[in-house]
Amino acid sequence: MSILEKCYKFTYIFVCALGLTISAQAHTHQHRMRIYIDAPKELKARIDSTTRSIDGVIKASWNSRRKFVFIVYNSAKTSPRKIRKILGKEGFYLVKQE
Question: Are the CB atoms for 60 and 80 separated by under 8 Å?
């Protein structure tokens, strides 16, 4: 096998592997949502930790000035309905979802 043939073979394998990697990344189940929670600033740590503890939530951060908790979640593990239900059971007053 000549050097040129080896280069072609390596390039072909590399391009195939790259295509599989891009395809796998395109099928992620990450979604974003935000929920308005009417609560005092002192509850920021509790809101953040409660939201992050939900199975399937990847990131969560409550903005105490705007009163929105911004959530990134895996839709294969949870849903907006489940997230809202758990936060409601924890006693947070959920006003609206966008």
Answer: no
Tens of pLDDT, residue by residue over 22-75, are: 544 445 689 999 999 988 999 999 999 999 999 999 999 999 899 999 999 999
> Residue 94: in which H helix or E strand, if any?
strand 94-97
> What does the block give as tokens for 97?
């979802």
Separation between Cα atoms, residue 82 and residue 23, nearest integer Å: 29
The predicted model scores a pTM of 0.67
Count other C-beta atoms under 10 Å from residue 69's C-beta. 24
Contacts of 70 (CB under 8 A, 6+ apart): 32, 33, 34, 59, 60, 61, 62, 63
CATH hierarchy code of domain 29-97: 3.30.70.100
Q: Report the C-alpha gap between 58 and 78 in whole angstroms.
A: 11
